[in-house]
Amino acid sequence: MNKVLSTSPANVSALIARLALGLVIFPHGAQKLLGWFGGGGFTGTMGFLTTGAGLPYLVALLVILIEFFAALFLIFGFLTRISAFGVLVLFLGVAFTAHGNSGFFMNWSMEAGRSEGLEYFVLLIGLALVSLISGGGKASIDAAIINKK
User: Fold this and answer.
1) Counts of helices then strands in the chain (DSSP H, E)
2) What's the domain range around 144?
């Protein structure tokens, strides 16, 4: 467990990466789980993901939980590497299954009537990789736990 939590408590880059990633993903997770920001809430999102998108129940549940809880954990720097891994796997799956044929640019794809392009996902995946490699960094719960030991 020490390797999962290990991080440099002085690493500001890790702090910036995990905050950026967590703050961008959290509203999406809050839409899906709580219905905030105009979202469908848990019931509506599960209905869409299982019926509309055709995902198995367990996968749809994981999508909601990862987007909400992994984002919160990243913001606070708690279990950063595990959270970043969850985000990485989730958005690799979303990018390649739902957006892979839409090209790179978001706006060009939408104009052509397709789903958004891959540029947003490249940024998310890049930030998730930084967090996966660096851990929580400065001002993280992970650093506080490791320094206590």
Assistant:
1) 9, 0
2) 2-148
